[in-house]
Amino acid sequence: MKFFSPTSELKELLLLQHIEKNPDTTQKEIAKVINGAKSMVNVNIDNLEENGYMVRDYQSAKIVYYNITPEGVKRKNYLLINYMRELLDLYRLAKENVEKFLLEIEERGYSKLLIYGAGEVAETILGVIRDRNKDTLKVLAVIDDNDEIQGKELLGYKIISRADINHYEHDAVIITSYAYEDEIRGKLKELNYSENKIIRFFS
């Protein structure tokens, strides 16, 4: 979770989910799951037990099993649904911005596209294009400089090298990398690629 700061509700969800799958978990593992200090693990566990969401089963002085209760399962599912709803709201917002970006590409008369950068942004754009009810835009392939993933696929689209660009009859290249946008633009210029055919998602 790089984007969100864990709230108490999210920590509760993560903890319930974890102990349901791993009743023999350790406090060290729990601290890692909730991204918290080991000193706070007992506080979180105590809260779950006081609310009837979990019971401790002492196998020995050092071994404790954490068993989720039926009420704990209900609580976990409730938190999960609410969390999913908020994520969907954020996804809709992101989708609206991607759709606006795609409409601008269409207005420029481009239809056959290559995407440069096989990361999360490319995956999101490909997902939005795939879910559209029109076929005015067609992605031919995804370019990436990592030779370990070249030849593989991203959401069904082949990942190719920069050297393969001319093998595809296309209208433009969309740069989807935030960190390496200028570097990618420079690499395209080295290939004498037309500046007018370079589209930058973040710029």
TrEMBL record:
It comes from the Bacteria. This is C2185-like N-terminal domain-containing protein. Pfam families: C2185-like_N, HTH_24. Gene3D superfamilies: NAD(P)-binding Rossmann-like Domain (3.40.50.720), Winged helix-like DNA-binding domain superfamily/Winged helix DNA-binding domain (1.10.10.10). Signal peptide: none annotated. InterPro entries: C2185-like_N, SAM-dependent_MTases_sf, WH-like_DNA-bd_sf, WH_DNA-bd_sf. Residues 112-199 form the C2185-like N-terminal domain.
